[in-house]
Amino acid sequence: MKQWLRRIRKGYGKKLVSIHAWNAWIVVILAVSGLMLVGGFWRELLGIGRVWLKWLHIIVGLAMLAPVVYYLILAGKHWKQLRNRPWQRVNTIVVLVLLGGWLLSGIVLWQFKLAGPRWSNAALLVHDLLTWVGLPYIIYHSITRTRWLKDPARRAVKATTTEAAGSNMVPPTNAPDEHATPAAIVSTESIRTTKESPLHQQEKPQPVYTRRAFIRSAVGVGLAVTLGPTFISWVGRNLNIDNSIESMLENDPNHMVPLPQPLHASSPPIGGGAEGHFRVYTVTPIPSFSNANWSFRIDGLVERAQVWNWEQFVKLARTVQVSDFHCVTGWSVYKNTWEGISLKQLLTQAGVKPEAHSVKFYSGDGVYTDAITMDQAQMEDIMVAVMHDGKPIPADLGGPVRLVIPQMYAYKSVKWLNRIELIESEHIGYWEERGYDKDAWLTGAAQRIPDLS
Q1: How far from each other are the two terminal CA atoms of the chain, in whole angstroms?
Q2: Who contacts 260 (Cβ-Cβ below 8 Å, separation ≥6)?
Q3: Angle at CA 241, nearest 5°, toward 240 and 247?
Q4: Cβ contacts of 212 within 8 Å, gap of 6 or more
Q5: Rg of the chain on CA atoms, in Å
Q6: For 148-179, how does the pLDDT look when each residue is reduced to its tens digit (9 = 90+)?
Q7: CA trace torsion 232, 234, 238, 241 (10° rounding)
Q8: Predicted local distance difference test score (pLDDT) of residue 104
Q9: Tens digits of per-residue pLDDT, 298-330?
Q10: Which residues, in sequence order, are bridge partners of residue 106?
Q11: Sheet holding 369-373: strands in order across?
Q12: Which residues, at least 6 apart from 394, have a Cβ–Cβ distance to it below 8 Å?
């Protein structure tokens, strides 16, 4: 084992450079693909390519394990070199924590169905936090250590023509060159194995503010300006600073009159109030509605087509239920108290023709659709909701009316719902066309579905 480790660590300076470079490109690919996956613009533009991009993100993320493990094999020798450099030790620990945290939280998100909603919720929070804190740190660390910024006198390993017996000198083949890479796992400045030459020991007059110091400051300010607002927005969303239901309602672009009045079970909510925070994902700009441009209809293969305006719709008899809300991207909101009309009740009122196979749902954004089978539509907990926790549903959350299917992932719960059509064939919904499962069952949900075969 010792011989194997000795062989692996031989020429470790050069190997640290290789690890540095490989990890740099891995972080770049993960950063770019990750930001594209969460960006609303890219969600629409990529189409089914988003699913391929997600798998690229997962595979490259798992590949990050290789340079991390390789570095840990070399870490003992590297750590000795850092014994008099506490800040470089801190830097190494910080970067390893970032990479390890990204890897572990990413694996939980990848296997979110096995991990369960509470673990995946926590993993997503950690993954995001490490991204918004760690990515600027790594970018700053890397840019300020590129070749064109560095003083040759500060290079980590000095090349020598011969290696004296018993000395600590490193042969030329082990000396890492300065290089420009987008991210770093270790700083090669720390690998100093020889004393500087007398030329380097001579004191040189230094300007009050060096070019390197200026560029480092400029890079820091640039990162703060470009990434700072996004990070603050992320903190606000996750610490409930600016994404409470009250805040959404205060800025709600919908103007529906009269507002629905909650049933006794909704106010206060029998679920005790939602636990968690909704993340707003849309494939179009958030639409707005008023009495003048809103209506709700049920048509297609029904005996009696139904059309309501807003004043009529809010008078329909409603029920209340408590259910959890799970997004396929890994986050959840628990104990939501929804109030609305049972889908099964609406279909019964319209009268279903025998040839109807599927129930198709239309969003008021004019783009998004999805569907379930007639058998699935018999589940008692599918609701056309008009209230959440005793309050109207704001536009950000899909109001004034949205679909809620608690036993399926949220991409089935169509926002801004304004039409239900019964059709004689299956319908492939918006995200199913882009690679998502047609049946979006939560883990274990299938066992709770009535056997209608």
Answers
A1: 61
A2: 314, 318, 339, 386, 387, 392
A3: 90
A4: 144, 149, 150, 151
A5: 29
A6: 334 445 444 444 443 334 444 334 434 344 33
A7: 40
A8: 92
A9: 999 999 999 999 999 999 999 999 999 998 888
A10: none
A11: 306-308, 296-300, 417-423, 358-363, 369-373
A12: 245, 248, 249, 251, 252, 254
pLDDT band at 72 (very low <50, low <70, confident <90, very high): confident
Which of 257, 282, 275, 266 has its CA nearest to residue 396?
282
Q: Which residue has the higher pLDDT, 28 or 269?
A: 269
Please name which of 223, 30, 48 lies closest in space to residue 127, comparing C-alpha atoms. 30
Mean of pLDDT values over 106-123: 81
For residue 284, what pLDDT band results from cuts at 50, 70 and 90?
A: confident
pTM of the model: 0.66
Per-residue tokens: 360: 């198709």
Instruction: Kindly report the three-state secondary structure assignment for every residue of the chain.
Output: CHHHHHHHHCCHHHHHHHHHHHHHHHHHHHHHHHHHHHCHHHHHHHCCHHHHHHHHHHHHHHHCHHHHHHHHHHHHHHHHHCCCCHHHHHHHHHHHHHHHHHHHHHHHHHCHHHHCHHHHHHHHHHHHHHHHHHHHHHHHHHHCCCHHHCCHHHCCCCCCCCCCCCCCCCCHHHCCCCCCCCCCCCCHHHCCCCCCCHHHHCCCCCCCCCHHHHHHHHHHHHHHHHHHHHHHHHHHHHCCCCCCHHHHHHCCCCECCCCCCCCCCCCCCCCCCCECCCCCCCCCCCCCCECCCCCEEEEECECCCEEECHHHHCCCCCEEEEEEEECCCCCEEEEEEEEEEEHHHHHHHHCECCCCCEEEEEECCCCCEEEEECCHHHCCCCEEEEEECCEECCHHHCCCCEEECCCECHHHCCCCEEEEEEECCCCCCCCHHHCCCCCCECCCHHHHCCCCC
List of long-range contacts for 156-164, beta carbons under 8 Å, 24+ apart? 156/13, 156/187, 156/188, 156/189, 156/190, 156/191, 156/192, 157/13, 157/188, 157/191, 157/192, 157/193, 157/194, 158/192, 158/193, 158/194, 158/196, 158/197, 160/194
Average pLDDT, the chain: 77
343 is written with which tokens?
């889908």
